[in-house]
Structures are given as structure tokens and as C-alpha cells.
Amino acid sequence: MNLRSTATAIGRRAWHVLAALAVTLMTGCGNMMGDVDGNWQMPIQASKEAADIDWVYYFIFWICLFYFVHIMGAMGWFMWRYRRIPGKEVEESPHHSLSLEIAWSIPPILLCVVMFYLGFDYYMQMSIPPADAIKIEVQAEKWSWKFRYHNGAESDELHIPKDKPVVFLLTSRDVLHAFYLPKMRVKKDIVPGRTTKAWTTANRAGDYTLFCAEYCGRSHSMMRAPVTVHETEAGWLAAIRPGRASPEKLFRMNCSSCHSIDTPEILTGPSLKGIGMSKRQVAAGGGAPTKEVLADRAYLKESILRPGALLSRMGKDFKDEMNKTFAKQLKPEQIESLVDYLLDPKKAMEKFEAELKKAEKK
């Protein structure tokens, strides 16, 4: 076998390996992004709008793949066919061909116009919610979500009815976030100082997950919220019935993104496991490194109302990062309930359940 034949064989094998790798990568992407009920590259279509959005995506994808394969293939063939060969005279290059330039310019331009039209049309459809859409206020804050419904109920879990258009009124209390429901094909930036809108019509009852898709700080990856799509509107209304939140739920809604209470793990703030009536090291001020305080009711309430007053030194020097307006979001009775929970989670929940039973008997 001469050198040229060897090079040809190596080139052919390399082309086969690259082709197999490309197919593997493309199918792998589909497996990673999809699920059992999903399609090739996408998860399940959990909204009525998802099918149209996927169609536009796949239309553009296959057009791009078609041109990629043909252009790269033609380029590779020309590189091999017209390579420099020792001892062979260089051929004169072809000159300008108007018909050839028109042939390779007009079709892509027309396809780009079609792509732009389809993309803009669906963008406008998703930017203007139906007039009868159910309104849900969504508040993003490092690193948690809060949802307020038309009846005044609040929750850290998103509940929406099936087959009803829902518009989300998105606001941020601090930095840039993004509202992302991948299985419903909804993604919208949440800009501080502005109310943005996103909407969808869920068509599959079940449990999903809301993500923040804009980096917003150290716990960005943990900024998630459970989403439940209810089969009936009655079931949805029952799930968002206003009621007094339990101490555990208050902690989960307001504190769990920065503090753990079941483990000693340090998140953005110190762990609050077993904090009730424990000895705590806090910043002393006045030149002294730290001082010891008792985590009684007064200390815990002070830490909620004035979070920078006694900064914790339990494990490391924590910065004064807690929102100064946090206490204004809570009613006085909710603050007391949170303090009860921090002092003794089990006892606070027993007290709450006893009060609920007492209220039901009346």
C-alpha cells in the first residue's frame, strides 16, 4: 500500500468516526434534554403552546443541519479533489458566475425571511396573554419564589389549573432573575423595578419544577419551586384556599433559601439547627472579635427585625446580607410564629395543629 492509499484510508476512517460522533452527540443531547414522554431533543409538551414552539425549533434545526452537512461535505470534497499534487500543473481558477451566486444566495435569504417571520409571529403570540387569563403574581428574591393568587392566598409553591390560560406578573425584590418552566416552554427575564409578563396554558396535570435561569448569586442553582398543575379548576381553588401558614411553611417560604434548620450545613447564612436557647457567638463591635449571647426569644426576634445588629460568627464571619425590609413582609403574628419555630420546631408545630383543631370545632 503506497502513501496516497494509506492517507485515503485514514481520511475515510476519520470521516466515518466524525460522522458517528456527530450522530452520537445529537442523540445524546436528545436523551439528556428529553424524557420518556418527550420528543427527540425536548422534554414533554406540558402546555398547548409547546407544540408550535417545538415545530419552529425543529424547522430551523433541520434546515441548519441540511446546509451544514452539504456545505461541509462539499468543502471536504473540494479540498480533496483539488488538492495540490506534486508534478501536476495548477489549474486556472474559475471566474465570476452570476447564476451560481444567485443560486447559493437567494434560497438562504428566503429561508431566513421565513425563519424570522415564524419566530417573530410566535414571539408576539407569547408576549400578549389572553384577556381572560388567570393572573398570578410572582415575586423572585435571592433565592426563593413567592406566589400570590387572586384570592389573596400566598404560597412558595405554584399551583395552576389545567386547560386555563395563566399569566404570570413577574417582579424581583433584588437582582435579575428568570422565570423558567422548561416543560411548558416558558422563559422570561425578571428585571428589578419592572413588572414583566409571561403566560401559558398547561395541558397536562402533574408535578413540575420552576427554575431560575439567570445567574443571581451563590445559591442560584437552588432557586427552584414545585409546580402543580391541577386536573380541575375546583382542585386548583382548593389548593390555593387562603389560610394561616404553619410555622414550618413560613420558615420554608422566607428562610430556607439561606438557612438550614434540619442539618448543620452552612448556606448563605449560618445553620439554625438547634438554635433555640443555645449559646451563640456574634460580632461584638468596638474592637472585640466576638461575644456570646443566648439565643432566646428576644435575640431571635431582634435578628429578624434588625438582621445586621448581631451578625453570627458560628462557623465563619458572615456578612450583613439579609434583606433589611424582610420583617416588613411579615405580619407581627407571623414573626412570632417564626420565633416559636426557631426556639423549638416540634413544639411550634404541635401548638399550630392544636390551634387549628380548636378553630375547626368552633
The helical percent reads 40-55%
Distance between the terminal alpha carbons, to the nearest Å? 97 Å
**Please, what is the average pLDDT?**
82
Main sheet, how many strands, which sense, barrel? 5 strands, mixed
Q: Give the ordered list of helices and strands.
A: HHHEEEEEEEEEEHHEEHHH
Q: Please tally the β strands and state the result.
A: 12
Beta-strand portion reads 15-25%
Key features of this structure:
5-stranded mixed sheet; Helix Hairpins; 12 strands; single chain; 8 helices
Helix and strand arrangement:
Layout: H1 3-33, H2 50-81, H3 98-127, E1 134-141, E2 144-148, E3 154-155, E4 158-161, E5 165-172, E6 177-181, E7 186-190, E8 196-201, E9 206-212, E10 224-230, H4 233-239, H5 247-254, E11 279-285, E12 288-294, H6 297-305, H7 332-343, H8 345-361
Parallel strand pairs: 1-5, 4-10
Antiparallel strand pairs: 1-2, 2-3, 5-8, 6-7, 6-9, 9-10, 11-12
Polypeptide structure, described:
The protein is α+β, with helices and mostly antiparallel strands. It folds into 3 domains: 34-83 and 99-127, Helix Hairpins (Orthogonal Bundle); 134-239, Cupredoxins -  blue copper proteins (Immunoglobulin-like, Sandwich); 247-361, Cytochrome c-like domain (Cytochrome Bc1 Complex, Chain D, domain 2, Orthogonal Bundle). The chain has helices at residues 3-33, 50-81, 98-127, 233-239, 247-254, 297-305, 332-343, 345-361; strands at residues 134-141, 144-148, 154-155, 158-161, 165-172, 177-181, 186-190, 196-201, 206-212, 224-230, 279-285, 288-294. The strands form 3 sheets. Strands 3-2-1-5-8 form a 5-stranded mixed sheet, with no helix packed on it. Strands 4-10-9-6-7 form a 5-stranded mixed sheet. Strands 11-12 form a two-stranded antiparallel ribbon. Strand 11 and strand 12 (288-294) form a beta hairpin. Helix 2 (50-81) runs antiparallel to helix 3, helix 6 (297-305) crosses helix 7 (332-343) and helix 7 (332-343) crosses helix 8 (345-361). The termini are far apart. Mean pLDDT is 82; it is low at 30-34.
